Amino acid sequence: MRVSLFITCYNDTLFPETGKAVVRLLERLGHTVEFRKEQTCCGQMHWNTGYLKEAIPIIRHFVNVYRDAETIVAPSSSCVSMMRDHYMKAAELAQDAKLAADVESLLPRVYEFTEFLVKKLGVEDVGATFPHKVTYHTSCHSQRSLHLGDIPIRLLKQVRSLELLPLENPQECCGFGGTFSIKNPDVSSAMLADKVRTVLNTGAEVCTAVDNSCLMHIYGSLHRQRTFVRTAHIAEILASTAGAQEDGK
Amino acid sequence: MPNSSDARDAIFSSIRTALQVPANADTAAVAAEYAALPRLYKREGTMNSEALLDLFTHRLVEYDAGVCRISAENISREIARILGERGRKRIAIPDGLPPEWLPAGFDFQNASRFNEHQLDQLEGVLTGCTVACAETGSIVLQNAAAQGPRSLTLVPDFHLCVVFAAQVVETVPECFARLDATAALPTTFFSGPSATADIEMTRIKGVHGPRFLDVLLVL
Amino acid sequence: MKEQAHSPWSNRSFPEAAKDLLADSQIRRNVRHATNIIQAKRNRVVGELPDWEQLRVSGAAIRAHALAHLDHYLAQFEDNCTRAGGHVHWARDAAEANRIILELIQRHSAKEVIKIKTMTSEEIGLNRNLEANGIHPHETDLAELIIQLGHDKPSHFVVPALHKNRQQVREIFQREMHLPDLGEQPEDLASAARTYLREKYLRIKVAVSGANFLVAENGAVCIVESEGNGRMCLTLPDVLISLVGIEKVVPRYRDLEVFLQTLPRSATGERMNPYNSIWTGVHAGDGPKEFHVVLLDNGRSPILADGEARQTLQCIRCGACLNACPVYHQTGGHAYESVYPGPIGAILTPQLHQMKDARSLPYASSLCGACYEVCPVKINIPEVLIHLRGKVVQQDQKTLAGKLGLWNIGMQAAAFLFEDSTRLSLAQHLGQIGQKVVVSKNGFIEHLPLMLSGWTQTRDLRPLPAQSFRDWWAQREKAKPGAASSSSPQPSNATEKPHAE
After folding, report:
1. Does position B133 have pLDDT exceeding 90, yes or no?
2. Nearest chain A residue (CA) to C500
3. pLDDT digit string (tens) for B9-61?
4. Contact: C18, A184; criterion CB under 8 Å
5. B143 CB near a chain C CB, below 8 Å?
6. Which of A32, B141, C9, C100 has its CA 20 to 30 Å from the CA of residue A101?
7. Contact C254/B176, CB-based, under 8 Å?
8. pLDDT tens per residue across span C143-175
């Protein structure tokens, strides 16, 4: 299958390793990955902060870039939920019937990364090995918008040597919320403190999720507190293999 | 008294402007739209009568109410037993309560026209009911024969309620189906004794309503 | 009439008010304890109903339909309530509602009234107005009594005193009820309230209530409650005045079969609340001889014009969104500086004020969606929050200060970058170089300037890696045909210095 990767703006800028892992894994599974260099952002930050009008050209740009893509995969549930929950509204707001039609044709071809693996490819065992204790944070968009359910957990359970440790209140928001963490830094910090406490209580070495946005937030506190707990996007765990582990040492 | 007709006109005008609708609604169209609203929730129960009564009993027990299953010929005897156990003599009764229910040896007072001070002097109240809902453990009283006005079952601290098996339905919608014909009567649903959880979410029985509830379930 | 319409709520923004509450560890513990318990109970009893989703769908549809034809159903309610012997009054705003209620009470020369918990009366500041006019209102709901005697403000609309623990309640009761030996068990406290209020129920002849539902078809009013204080107020006095928002009407009596399933399960996690009262007008020999309904607009009708935000008025005030909200969990209700706190308050309050006040509230959410998930009438609160944020931004952009504000400039600049990938790429390169001034010795960003400074109060930020993904991809493409990626299999932050390979 020819997979068009939407890396997302913050993964592109801040977390290239996640993108590399997605490419490595999809190629390992025998698929062709393309990267359309015209891509930028899904428009979520503007939309969610109330800059609705400003989000529309960004959305239009996204739709134009991927108009003829066969399958689009993004390693971010929040960006995919932006598309599924808000793109039609944006087209309505812009009173742009053409954009609405484009969105309608595009959305069925867009997948979140783990959703793509399990629902589209039907793969749960991706042949990964990751000899670490891992806990999984359920990001808000992955559960309440995309309804991924236990898809990420099923993938993690197939990873060799991985010990999955359950997180208390896995469904509770980490407090990031994009610009929420800037507009309400104190409340956001309090929410984060609760989340980080549950992460540390698991005794895991690595906290993973399907969104680097939450992980950036969680790691921000883990690092500030000088803990040795790391964060890693689920793609990086699923792309790890026994050989690569040894190479890495 | 303020004349609120200006206010009324202003509010209706504001609503109609906001909704962009004319002053005279097309009532047939509204009714058609209402009739087409989705109603896919459970409206009919599926339990057999035994399971139904078990569920009802279970819910009442959860609410800390006393429940006894009895047969129709024993109503009077069971009432005497419970009142005796509870040590209550002066008992309020509503109009229309079957006289054959009343055992000898107690002071039953027809209290349908009592005021709250008189009611406050009594030790309990004995009534029937209109319908009961098993799923929620609720008993519904209306101002009708054997049930009386609302204050009757509110002021006394103890309520003994006679519920016939045929009055018990499974679901809330079935309950409303039975109430529909007498919907205009003052109606009280009660689900267990009065309670609050306002302090640290601890459920405490009996704040203002009756603190003790016993139910005689007549099979 | 003396008007005293000042609100007990200040005009502080949510972030400012939240800061104080976050510092109060007792309140946070109390709120956390209470919301955890209600949530667990709610989840259990909701899980019991296989048709929960269908009930939500129907509840939402009935409420939306009633709002779409609100004029029709209100007129129907008025006719039927009047026919049943009730009196219907209309109040455009808080002042008008206060005036109507005061005159009704004065007509009966009452100096005291008993009250059932109603948020609508909070909304119009009824108690302050009555007191200013020499009438003493007695709250009868246990939690409202705690709030009233403690000179406090409600922090939740189902359990208004959930921010108080038993010791704090005891102190209030000891002082205000003159009971120096009162114990601190919840039973002792409830029993003290029973004794304190029973005398008032038997003596006071005018009661004020709100209502949960008005039924258009037969003019019925429905109130749900737990303690029996509602029943006392609804049946013992001679005069009952119910103050109700115009949005509370449902078309038919049987619509209650939906809401009396979803409301108690959502609000207190009970299958049914201990008492529901339903009555129409007045009934000879049963309950008040005089019944008045005051229908309050107070900013509601304009909300109907906004197709996106109209769903706000579907609310049945169960409070489930408060209990589910991770923001509310941290701050409790007072941080919202509003009668209606929590997620629903964050969308309702600014709209009731025509977006002139409470403009920080639409931002008081991480948009996690927990509120929408539990809402029994499917109000898509996150969607409405975003919609209202859009209104706030539009308002700001109309002022010079807003236009030149950092947020607007930053967002315009970001939008400019995101419209073209070459601009984004250039910005990434500039960032990789420019960030050196903020990166600490340990390789992380520990202090950010201006509006971003809040972020680094408690968090470190990973700096931009030396190479963006798009640059890596371009490099890889150039090298083709050749070896595959040589990137590290380790997690990206496996070492203190990321991406140092």
Report:
1. yes
2. A17
3. 999 999 999 999 999 889 999 999 999 999 999 999 999 999 999 999 999 99
4. yes
5. yes
6. A32
7. yes
8. 999 999 999 999 898 889 889 999 999 999 999
Would the CB atoms of B2 and C165 count as touching at under 8 Å? no
Asked if B172 is an interface residue toward chain C (Cβ–Cβ < 8 A), one would say yes
Q: Which amino acid is at C163?
A: H
Hey, what are A86's tokens? Answer: 């808000």
Tell me: pLDDT of C1 over 60.
no
- Cis peptide before C481, with omega less than 30 degrees from 0? yes
C70 CB neighbours in chain B (<8 A) are: 15, 19
Chains touching B, CB cut-off 8 Å, 3+ pairs: C
Calculate helix-pair angle for C52-68, C70-83, nearest 10 degrees.
90
ipTM of the complex in this document: 0.96
Q: Do B154 and C99 touch (CB under 8 A)?
A: no
Q: Give a yes or no: residue A213 inside a domain.
A: yes
Judge contact between B112 and B94, C-beta under 8 A: yes
Per the model's pLDDT, the better-predicted residue between C198 and C328 turns out to be C328
| Fold of the domain built from segment(s) C14-302 | Rossmann fold (3.40.50)
Structure-token pair, residue B78: 């069971």
Q: Give me the residue from A50, A144, A182 closest to C451, CB to CB.
A: A182
* The domain boundary residue, chosen from A120, A142, A175: A120
Residue C87's DSSP bridge partners are C292
Q: Which two tokens stand for residue B193?
A: 């004794």
Residue C459 to residue A224, Cβ atoms within 8 A: yes
∠ CA C470-C471-C474 to the nearest 5 degrees? 85
The per-residue pLDDT for range C30-87, each reduced to its tens digit, is: 999 999 999 999 999 999 999 999 999 999 999 999 999 999 999 999 999 999 999 9
Candidate from C330, C461, C491 with C-beta closest to A236:
C491
Distance from CA of C367 to the nearest CA of A (A): 6
What is the CATH number for B137? 3.40.50.10420
Identify the domain containing residue A54 by its residue range. 2-120
